[in-house]
Design goal:
The structure is a homodimer.
Chain A: H1 3-7, E1 10-13, H2 22-32, E2 36-40, H3 41-47, H4 49-59, E3 62-70, H5 77-97, E4 101-105, H6 114-134, E5 138-141, H7 158-165, E6 173-178, H8 179-182, H9 188-194, E7 199-204, H10 228-237, E8 244-246, H11 251-254, H12 258-272
Parallel strand pairs in A: 1-2, 1-8, 2-3, 3-4, 4-5, 5-6, 6-7, 7-8
Chain lengths: ~270, ~270
């Protein structure tokens, strides 16, 4: 792909500029000529759904996804129903904000029984699908790095995500490939191929050595060891031609000026994605 | 298994008492009636191989393994040969110290090309096998948690370890199952079954939430989310009846009195392993 084609896919995942609210992030992207944005629910909640929608529409920006639904496992049936209800709200918000993709971070288990928690994830998705479909929203299962299996998601590999997604039509459930979470997987390229026509999101950042923090330790593209370009090409070969989100959760980046960060993102994206 | 049978398998992996040298660790185990010990090379180096051997023999303790060989990938052929030479020394030390098992931490890649580094691991093991066999030493491939793929080992799953080990006779190359590294793996029980007759080591600790440190953050059995007893039973069903090493890399434990730590290990081992 030529550089122009690639730049047209660039999306700012809003968590990368956690220091900014929705208005600032949108203004920053417009200034930096970044055409897409992925919106986080806690940022939407700060100013309300309608105001967020107004800002996004006025800017002309396209919304690549809403982050995030999921968190399905919980100790009691009542809590699991509450989680599901929250996912329904997330679907409504996604539709209202003008994106057809809700990213799912599936959740950790409430206890030591990881198999049952994985079953609760599958059950939760199964219950959510008809509701999401009625809003024209696809569910994107994002496997998280295994180091988050105890506190963020029991779905740790693209293989697991594919196995769940394959139960549904590609327009209902897909997978999200985030290089930070999957780069180490010996089955990576095989599972990307298996996900053909089901990839609904592609996220980039980097794995720096040593990782500065378990949660807020993702690196800028080019600063780490991930073969980002190789993975991007594999995802493209598997039929994904949608937006590419830069999603960097990193305290040092949050402490910088947002405009500088966007400038660097564009440079690194061109060089390394 | 009855408790007595289990206690007879208990082994102190020496890194758990990093505050102690070989003599102190051996004395501590004798006092605590822990019958096995796994020895680390940097501790042996502090006092020399012959002195370490003398201490171990005088104590009557059994040596479950030597930690560690591996670290095969390197940027140049010359460096890779140096790594191999170091592995040959590790094999000699294992034989001299009276254990038939050398644990392999296979090493990170020197660059972004993880596939080539994985090939170098397989090549290194292949070259080491005849030498190790001539000393009666088995190579135990220990898959490390994927969060160490960039700085400790490109072998991240039991599946990968099995695929390499299966190229050899079970008396030459086996796998080491460490619950901290593999608990999250959706293929865990299937891969333990696949490893039947090839498991040459079993390590326990726990995954606490949140993990206090990427490297020195392992927990005491019972303090975390790992189904240790379930994994122990699976390993046993797969034919492993050897020593069970308690391997906890944790600064807070290193800051405690070694004797107290051994006392707690015995309690937790009885309750949770």
């Amino acid at each position: 792909m030529d550089d122009k084609g690639l730049m047209e896919k660039l999306s700012l995942n809003q968590i990368t500029t956690e220091q900014w609210g929705v208005q600032e992030a949108v203004d920053g992207c417009v200034r930096a000529e970044i055409p897409w944005i992925s919106v986080w629910r806690h940022k939407v909640a700060e100013i309300g759904l309608q105001e967020s929608k107004r800002i996004l529409q006025a800017s002309g920006m396209k919304v690549s996804s809403l982050c995030r639904g999921g968190m399905f496992p919980a100790a009691t049936a009542r809590e699991r129903e509450e989680r599901l209800e929250d996912n329904r709200r997330a679907v409504e918000e996604a539709a209202e904000l003008g994106t057809d993709t809700l990213v799912l971070v599936c959740g950790p288990g409430p206890d030591r029984d990881i198999d049952t928690s994985r079953k609760w994830v599958a059950d939760g998705i199964d219950k959510l699908v008809p509701f999401a479909q009625s809003y024209g929203v696809k569910l994107g299962i994002e496997p998280l790095h295994p180091m988050y299996a105890a506190d963020r998601s029991v779905i740790s590999t693209l293989g697991q995500a594919n196995t769940i997604a394959e139960q549904y039509h590609p327009g209902q459930v897909g997978v999200v490939v985030d290089v930070f979470h999957v780069w180490w997987d010996p089955e990576l390229y095989q599972q990307i191929e298996r996900a053909s026509s089901r990839i609904v999101g592609f996220h980039v950042s980097d794995w720096v050595v040593p990782v500065p923090d378990m949660f807020k330790g993702r690196g800028m593209m080019g600063d780490g060891v991930i073969e980002i370009n190789r993975i991007r090409q594999a995802v493209q070969t598997a039929g994904y031609h949608g937006p590419i989100e830069v999603e960097i959760i990193n305290q040092a980046i949050w402490d910088r000026k947002g405009n500088e960060v966007l400038h660097e993102i564009k440079e690194r994206y061109q060089q390394h994605v």
